[in-house]
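Teaching soon. Invent one.


***
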Amino acid sequence: MRIALLEDGPEQSQHEQGIICRRRQSCDAFETGQHFLSVVLHNNNDLLVLNCQISGMSGLSRRNQQAQSRKNQKPEEGVVHAQVMAAHD
């Protein structure tokens, strides 16, 4: 499974990466929303783990950008897109 992690807190990011790696999953970690978007919008990740309160980007804006980028894509057979949002969004 390919996982992208957006977390601006270094200690929290290391903790989350450790959990993911112990489960033998691939993890790309990002500290800023802009860097995250510049890479993730062009990759096929199986799971996005987002800090929805990161400065300069909200979880809702990320969800909207992802929906727009997938609007013109052909649906993939057997793929389910799920999103979990924080109460603040």
